[in-house]
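> @MW can you paste both from yesterday?
MW: sure, first one:
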Amino acid sequence: MKPNARTLAMRDPALAAIMGVLGASAGADFGAEFGNDYGAEFGDDFGEFGLDAPAVPVASSKPNAQAMMALWQQHQMKRAHTTRREMLLEPNKGSTAKIERYSFSINQDIVLGTAQALELSGQPDTTIRPQRVTMNAPQPGFATIAEIKVANVSVTVGGDEDAYDYNALAVGSTLDMPTLSPANRAKILGNYTGFVPPGFVGGSDYKFTASFKGPASIVA
């Protein structure tokens, strides 16, 4: 039986030539037979393989409920974090009430070394809810405070206090004071004792000051 191109292709070509299986025109015949025989059969077989092979699964473009919930939670976390960062620059963003921490002060000029009564009074330029009051008494015994009144409400309910208790470094000097509007006044009554602290010069002017600090409406 004469071997065809397929059987020869499975053997050693050099050995086939020595045995005389390949003739002078074998080059052309070998190429043709190989193309017709092997190529056609291989193509048919491979085509059938393609038809029989299972389809490659395609991922769904629509996320399921769990994935959608995870995306929504991630979005909300980013949105909340962004809002917190923006609040550092604009605390009143998104609010119809514009509130910031302000300081409202009242003062009185005194002469060091000369005892005199203290009666500090004033009205704020905007509505403020004082939470702390500070006074610039340089040392204990400089001045005494008889009453602190805010919006006609006295926030002192005992005897005289040392004004130094309300210095800027004092601890526990916060008070629950009523909201103070431009229509009301803050008032402090007391006495300067005439004491001249070391480093100060008797007879010189000194501005005794009380400052009320707390949330206030922003002045337009």
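MW: second:
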Amino acid sequence: MPLSPAQKSLYWRTWSKVRKTYIELGEFSPSEADQQRHELHRSALGQDKSSTAFTNRDLDAILDQFQAVLVLTDGPQTGAPRALSQPLNRLIYAIQALALPPAYVAAIARDEFHTDAWEALDEAALTRLRFTLTTRARRRARTT
């Protein structure tokens, strides 16, 4: 799925900060900084990939790579890297978007994963929970 307009904007705003950092630190001329963007893509993704072809995971990896440059001027980032936290956030959002009663979601999580704290599950478990809940939500919609 292509990036949303907000994600594209975030990418370009963040790149603008990185570019400015490169130029202000005297490491690169403006044209060299623009070429460095492609190097950052290669470093994060293993290949140079157009921003128009990014997946959510690609964007997370690139933004983490940008953050590694911005640490030079902004200081260290707090919290988990985007590549780790965003997939979890997207899964939690997708589960919440199903608009199932919270007690029902907790009961399914308790049955499958022996915990009511489903938001704390890892990515594989959240993916499985989302699949189960989506299937059950569709089944409920057909019977009503």
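> thanks! Helices lie at 5-24, 30-45, 56-74, 82-97, 102-113, 123-143.
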